[in-house]
């Protein structure tokens, strides 16, 4: 009798959580959206709304809000949730503020959101370009309100002072996740440093905003602690949205948060002292951003 080898069944890889129905997006429609769409196509304008495939593009454009990225498209950080290219940036265009301001004017944007990659290699972290972009936009489009979603200045507080001095109505800096996940999600950032950046921005008399992605493995108590930390450091506005894995090389989704849970987190945030909370699976940093300029300082 021949002893046959015992073949062990292969261990199946754990199935990834399936994207739920509530994350399906409706196609953008409406006259306001169509008008902005024509201008963007005709003049070959660039917005993060398009390049980031934002699920809210139609709604935001319909409300007259658009998001622009300055200071190039190569980031000096390598966050594990973000699909922006990492490396040594070469682009540093001092004429960029004029071109962005003209694009905003041409598109007749009612509320502009400006963001950028991290530029750690620049002595001023790109602060002079940030300020000039806001100043020129205000000159060309005096009725346009502006939110600047600024990066971590890595404790260069002089650069922060310049970056927030252009006259924008809202200054946002995303903490992105809870403190315990920083080493995994934002290895080159520090939770306490981001909190200090928000605290200094508020101390300078500005309307402050931040955002957190959910579904990365955070626990509810950790999120509540982050809310308390943000309130203690002067935050006015918080956005909460579902993390979605941009490519297979990035962090996998640990959990899909239900709309009911997002609604609960909104109530918790308001109860804990935040003045305004946007909370939902499809919420992104600039979602309903035009409403945030009315939040009292």
TrEMBL record:
Q: Which UniProt keywords apply?
A: 4Fe-4S, Cytoplasm, Iron, Iron-sulfur, Metal-binding, S-adenosyl-L-methionine, Transferase
Class in the EC hierarchy, top level? transferase
All copies of the Radical SAM core domain together span: 61-275
Localization recorded for this chain is: Cytoplasm
Give the molecular function GO annotations. lipoate synthase activity
Q: What is its main location?
A: cytoplasm
Positions bound to [4Fe-4S] cluster 2 = 75, 79, 82
**Pfam families, A to Z:** LIAS_N, Radical_SAM
Q: Does the keyword Metal-binding apply?
A: yes
Any keyword Electron transport? no
HAMAP family, sorted: Lipoyl_synth (MF_00206)
Q: Which protein family is named in the record?
A: Belongs to the radical SAM superfamily. Lipoyl synthase family.
Question: Cofactor note, please?
Answer: Binds 2 [4Fe-4S] clusters per subunit. One cluster is coordinated with 3 cysteines and an exchangeable S-adenosyl-L-methionine.
Catalytic reactions on record: [[Fe-S] cluster scaffold protein carrying a second [4Fe-4S](2+) cluster] + N(6)-octanoyl-L-lysyl-[protein] + 2 oxidized [2Fe-2S]-[ferredoxin] + 2 S-adenosyl-L-methionine + 4 H(+) = [[Fe-S] cluster scaffold protein] + N(6)-[(R)-dihydrolipoyl]-L-lysyl-[protein] + 4 Fe(3+) + 2 hydrogen sulfide + 2 5'-deoxyadenosine + 2 L-methionine + 2 reduced [2Fe-2S]-[ferredoxin]
Protein origin, superkingdom: Bacteria
E.C. number, please? 2.8.1.8
Report the InterPro entries cross-referenced here. Aldolase_TIM, Elp3/MiaA/NifB-like_rSAM, LIAS_N, Lipoyl_synth, rSAM, rSAM_sf
- SMART domains the UniProt entry points to: Elp3
User: Where does this protein act, in terms of pathway?
Assistant: Protein modification; protein lipoylation via endogenous pathway; protein N(6)-(lipoyl)lysine from octanoyl-[acyl-carrier-protein]: step 2/2
Tell me the cofactors it needs: [4Fe-4S] cluster
Q: What is this protein called?
A: Lipoyl synthase
Q: Which residues bind [4Fe-4S] cluster 1?
A: 49, 54, 60, 286
């Amino acid at each position: 009798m021949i002893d046959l080898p015992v073949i062990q069944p292969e261990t199946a890889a754990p199935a990834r959580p399936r994207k739920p129905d509530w994350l399906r997006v409706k196609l953008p429609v409406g006259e306001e959206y169509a008008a902005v769409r024509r201008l963007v196509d005709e003049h070959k304008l660039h917005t993060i709304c398009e390049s980031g495939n934002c699920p809210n593009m139609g709604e935001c454009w319909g409300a007259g809000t658009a998001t622009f990225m300055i200071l190039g498209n190569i980031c000096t950080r390598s966050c594990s949730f973000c699909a922006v290219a990492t490396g040594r940036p070469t682009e540093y265009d001092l004429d960029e503020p004029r071109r962005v301001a003209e694009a905003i004017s041409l598109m007749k944007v009612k509320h502009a959101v400006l963001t950028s990659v991290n530029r750690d290699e620049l002595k001023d972290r790109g602060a002079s370009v940030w300020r000039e972009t806001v100043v020129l936009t205000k000159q060309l489009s005096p009725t346009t309100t502006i939110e600047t979603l600024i990066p971590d200045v890595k404790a260069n507080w002089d650069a922060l002072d310049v970056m927030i001095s252009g006259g924008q109505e809202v200054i946002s800096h995303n903490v992105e996740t809870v403190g315990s996940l920083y080493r995994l999600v934002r290895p080159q950032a520090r939770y306490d440093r981001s909190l200090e950046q928000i605290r200094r921005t508020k101390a300078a008399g500005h309307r402050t905003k931040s955002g957190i992605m959910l579904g990365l493995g955070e626990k509810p108590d950790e999120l509540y602690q982050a809310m308390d930390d943000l309130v203690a450091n002067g935050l006015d506005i918080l956005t909460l949205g579902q993390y979605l894995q941009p490519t297979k090389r990035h962090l996998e989704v640990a959990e899909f948060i239900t709309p009911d849970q997002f609604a609960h987190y909104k109530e918790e945030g308001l109860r804990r002292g935040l003045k305004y909370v946007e909370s939902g699976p499809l919420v992104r940093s600039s979602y309903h951003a035009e409403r945030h300029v009315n939040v009292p300082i």
